[in-house]
Design goal:
Blueprint: H1 5-27, H2 35-41, H3 45-65, H4 70-98, H5 101-106, H6 115-127, H7 129-137, H8 161-179, H9 187-201, H10 218-230, H11 237-254, H12 256-280, H13 288-297, H14 301-308, H15 310-332, H16 337-373, H17 384-388
Helix pairs in contact: 1-3, 1-12, 1-14, 1-15, 1-16, 3-8, 3-10, 3-12, 4-8, 4-15, 4-16, 9-11, 10-11, 11-12, 15-16
Length: 390
């Protein structure tokens, strides 16, 4: 399967944007940065939106290019995401409940943001510990509304709410890709759009603290799939219409500010999509400035390497911050702003080697295990779209 270098680099940038946002949140360092810079870096939700678009693009590429039954596809996806998630989930629980380092870093820290929300989240963990754990182990913690189970999506390992969202997408992605290619299968797109409108209207729960439910973020996956279909050289009209309607539902339901963030995410995605199209020869134009920009931000070995380990970065950075800041404030009995900022900077630096170690020792072996169990021989197999018979 072809790897798109610009897309992989984009993943790296987005992962470190999330790291920066959480570093500002835990350290209160936004007060010492220029307001514009702090405001931009503090928008952790925006890079996660781009992650979802990238996921739609990559999974569509996988489904178009590979020939494997649905069960094999889904099991490989499981081994792609679950081993690292399970490892980091256990690590986060040990830090929180074995050594109380999460509380020391994120709650007892006078400069951390939303302390009351984190206290409430830990209360929900204590009150429904087994339920939260089982939901996480099934990767379905994002399906349950917070009005049903408070903080269902964000307990234990808060960034993993988006992993549940991705897993929900993986389950329906084959039919989504087919339905955006074949008019007679468009009923599934229509069903998703009606469901999305219903989710924003509260049909499936009164509210989610984060948009971890598939029908709340379906527009992002539509955008990613449509982008990949466009690279095939044909205008994906079903995808364009479905994406447009899904975005309209989101904007009408969420209001102006979230809509502007979504526009910003779309602009960043379009920039990297153009670079990808140029990379594979779908579009051809000569621009010295554009080429210089992307040699700097995408086509260099450092950024590509960070993109390769971006999943490990995304899941590990909060536990690394809990470990470093928690130990630092307890050992030194020091809660001064300068000390917490210093500890946060150290945690950010240590996230780099942690990401590479986790990638090589946990994430990559999990992927390889999935490949060994399901070698993906295409002999005598039909593609997923053929298997679905739509």
């Amino acid at each position: 399967m072809k790897r798109f270098v610009a897309i992989e680099s984009l993943r790296g940038w987005m992962a470190w944007w999330v790291v920066a946002a959480h570093a500002l949140d835990v350290s209160g360092a936004d007060t010492i940065l220029p307001k514009v810079v702090a405001k931009i870096l503090g928008q952790a939700g925006l890079p996660v939106q781009i992650f979802m678009i990238v996921s739609g693009f990559v999974i569509a590429h996988l489904l178009i290019g590979r020939r494997e039954p649905f069960g094999e596809y889904l099991q490989k996806r499981w081994f792609r995401v679950f081993p690292l998630f399970a490892f980091m989930l256990v690590f986060a629980i040990v830090l929180s409940y074995g050594f109380d380092l999460y509380r020391a870093a994120w709650i007892n820290n006078p400069y951390a943001g939303d302390v009351s929300g984190r206290v409430s989240k830990m209360e929900s963990e204590h009150n429904s510990w087994l339920t939260h754990l089982l939901l996480h182990l099934s990767l379905m913690h994002g399906v349950v509304a917070d009005s049903v189970l408070p903080y269902a999506s964000t307990t234990f390992l808060s960034p993993a709410w988006s992993l549940s969202l991705e897993w929900q997408f993986y389950v329906v992605a084959p039919l989504m890709v087919v339905s955006l290619q074949r008019i007679r299968a468009a009923w599934f797109c229509l069903l998703l759009l009606v469901g999305s409108a219903g989710a924003f209207a509260g049909w499936f729960g009164e509210w989610w603290d984060v948009p971890a439910y598939l029908l709340l973020g379906i527009s992002l996956f539509f955008a990613g799939i449509t982008s990949r279909l466009w690279l095939d050289g044909k205008t994906p009209w079903l995808g364009i219409v479905s994406t447009g309607v899904a975005l309209l539902i989101f904007c009408v339901s969420e209001g102006l500010k979230p809509s502007l963030y979504l526009v910003a995410a779309g602009a960043i995605w379009c920039l990297f999509l153009v670079a990808t199209a140029k990379e594979v020869g779908v579009v051809k134009f000569s621009s010295r400035s554009f080429d210089m920009l992307f040699r700097l931000i995408a086509y260099n070995s450092t950024v590509i390497a960070l993109g390769r380990v971006s999943y490990s970065t995304y899941l590990s950075h909060v536990p690394v911050m809990s470990l470093v800041i928690g130990i630092g404030v307890i050992a030194a009995d020091n809660h001064s702003h300068s000390w917490i900022v210093s500890l946060t900077m150290l945690a950010v630096v240590l996230t780099v080697p942690a990401s590479f170690l986790l990638y090589h020792w946990v994430e990559k072996p999990g992927v390889q295990l999935g490949k060994r169990l399901f070698p993906g021989s295409t002999a005598g197999k039909r593609s997923l779209s053929s298997t679905l018979r739509v």
